[in-house]
Amino acid sequence: MQNLYAKIQTMRNTFNAYVIGQEYMFQFIFIAFVTQTHILIEGVPGLAKTRAVNLMADLVNAQFNRIQFTPDLLPTDIVGSEVFNVQNGQCYIRKGPIFANVILADEINRAPAKVQSALLEAMQERQVTIAGKTEELSPFFVVLATENPIEQEGTFPLSEAQTDRFAVKLVVDYPSQDAELKILELQEKVGDAWDVKPIFTPNELLTLGRVINKVRVVPELKNYIVRIVEATRKPEQYGLGALAKYIRLGASPRASIYLMKIGKVIAFLKNRDFALPEDIKAVAHEVLRHRILLTFEAQADNVSSDDIIDQIVAKIPIPKMD
User: Fold this and answer.
1) pLDDT tens-digit map of 188-206
2) Does this chain's domain 2-207 share its CATH topology with 214-315?
3) What is the CATH number of domain 2-207?
4) Distance between CA 267 and CA 21 in Å, rounded?
5) Contact present, 71 and 154 (Cβ < 8 Å)
6) β-strand 38-42 against 142-147: which pairing, if any?
7) Span 214-315 CATH architecture
C-alpha cells in the first residue's frame, strides 16, 4: 500500500512541476479517474485547464481527445457516423473523437442541444448511438468539460439534466504572484512541452477505484450527507428559512451519492480506510454548487450557491464518530 501512495505522490509532484499553482485541479482530476466520474471546470482562458487534463491523461497512459465545441457542431462530429464504402458496397462505422479514455469538452456551453444530448448519452450510459446502432465506449471513460464564465454570446446553457451528471464543478482562479513567476521560468525552460512517463495505467486506476470504494462510511456519516443535501431542498426544516427565497431547486440524490464516493477518495488520500465529516465538508462546494438553482432574488441580492453551501455546512451538526 505504501508503494501505491508513493506512486500517487510521484504523480502529484510531476503534475505540479508542469502545471504551476493548480494542485486543486490535480486532486479532482485524480478523483474523476479513480471514481470514473465527470468534471465541469469553470475558469477564464489561460489557466492551464487543457494542459492539466492532457498531462494527467499522459500520466495514466490514457488516450486523450480534445473536442472544441462550437455552435455549428453536429452530433456526428463527436460520436462518428456511418460511411458507405464504394469499393465493396458496404457501410461501416467511422468512430468519432468520443471514443477515447479522457475527453476534454472545451467550452461545452457553446454546443447546441443535439450535441449536448449526444454527449449526455455517452456520459451517462457509456455508449453512443450511430445510425441506430449502439457502440460501447471504453471501460475507462471520463469527460472533463470547460466553461468560460465571461462570454455569453453564442452559448447554450447546459440543461439541468446534463449539469447534474457532472460529479463536481470546479471554479479555477488565477495563480498567485509567486506561482505566475514560476510559470515564466518554466516557459523559458521547457515551453509548452513536457517529458513524462506513465505512472498508472487505466486498468490500475479502475482497480484502485474498487479498492477505494471499500472505504467505510458509517451510518451516522451517511445521515450527515443526506441532511446536508436535504437542507438545499428544505432549508426551513434545518433552521435556514432565510435561504428558502434564494433556492429555486435543491440538489438531487446524485449529490448524496457523489459526496459519499468522493469523500471516500479524500479519506483514502489521507491514508484512512474510513471517512470522516471533514472529508465530506472538504468537497461540499464542488459537489453541490452546480446543483443548487438560484432564484432571481438571489441574483439581485448577490447571493451565490457557494454562500448558501457555507451556511448549510455551518448549520448542520457534525455527527459524533465512534
Assistant:
1) 888 888 889 999 999 999 9
2) no
3) 3.40.50.300
4) 23
5) yes
6) parallel
7) Orthogonal Bundle (1.10)
